[in-house]
Design a protein that fits this description.
The chain is α/β, with parallel strands linked by helices and about 270 residues long. The chain is built from eight helices and twelve strands. The mean pLDDT is about 95.
């Protein structure tokens, strides 16, 4: 049975788990293993997502599960993104419970739910069901994603999403291949999302991998062709997970590349500096 959620198109036998560790074949159907299984839950400032131009100063209930359909060696949340079902402590949280908790936290500045921490789209059924209930309660849905999803399920989900921060991890097919991803898929996801909701984009600048001025200018030029008002976040890399052999991105390099991107984009922010 082929899983058609992302470009990996895992061909799964009965009981076999896909590349993302969160989808399997059961009774001849592809199902989500992480539906309602929550590894992380916190009330965060919206700016932490990062979203700089969507309800600034507000808080948002942030929820994550396990698994990811990329293999970034620098992953900041590898403890949950690189694990599978039953490999760490989880809580069962139904869509109704999550939506009710979001409403309960409204007096504390909460505006809705952010699906984040691991890759939420590999559990898109849970995101869909939660997001519908969150909207029914008059609150907002935010998605933090690598954008690695096929067009049909992305179009189906987008009407429920109010804002998204999408990782654009670089601008060469070779770099994306190293990460287990596909650049053109992410570009399509960004362009489609920009038609339906508020979008911001984040690029982590990894020394000697995706931090050349030429690459960032190409990235910014393309993003401006979608909409030059899309905010771009350029973030500083720190050694993490399986990429501990590189130093942190020099702060001056982050600022330099931000200036280069501003030639094409109206809003460029620096992070982790």
């Amino acid at each position: 049975m082929i899983c058609e959620l992302c470009f990996h198109h895992c061909d799964l036998s009965e009981g076999q788990t896909g590349f993302c560790r969160a989808r399997t074949c059961r009774d001849g159907k592809i199902i989500s293993l992480n539906y309602g299984k929550v590894t992380s839950l916190a009330l965060d400032p919206i700016e932490k997502k990062p979203l700089r131009q969507f309800h600034p100063g507000s808080m948002i209930l942030s929820v994550g599960s396990f698994g990811c359909n990329l293999r970034c060696p620098f992953c900041q949340n590898h403890e949950i993104s690189m694990c599978g079902d039953g490999e760490l402590e989880m809580a069962e949280v139904s869509p109704d419970t999550l939506a009710s908790k979001a409403l309960e936290l409204r007096p504390y500045g909460n505006i809705g739910v952010a699906y984040t921490y691991n890759e939420p789209l590999i559990g898109c059924e849970y995101v869909r069901d939660c997001a519908a209930l969150v909207h029914e309660k008059g609150m907002l849905n935010v998605l933090l994603t690598n954008g690695t999803i096929e067009e049909a399920p992305w179009r189906e989900l987008l009407p429920l999403i109010d804002a998204a921060n999408i990782d654009l991890k670089g601008f060469t097919p070779e770099w994306y291949q190293q990460l287990g991803g596909n650049l053109e898929t992410v570009k399509r996801s960004i362009a489609l999302a920009a038609e339906r909701c508020h979008v911001e984009v984040t690029t982590l600048l990894v020394p000697d991998e995706n931090d050349s001025e030429e690459e960032i200018q190409s990235l910014a030029r393309w993003l401006a062709s979608v909409d030059r008002s899309i905010p771009l976040h350029l973030s500083r890399f720190f050694p993490r997970y399986r990429m501990t052999d590189k130093p942190p991105t020099p702060v001056e390099q982050v600022y330099h590349l931000a200036d280069a991107a501003r030639k094409y984009l109206s809003f460029v922010y620096t992070g982790n500096c």
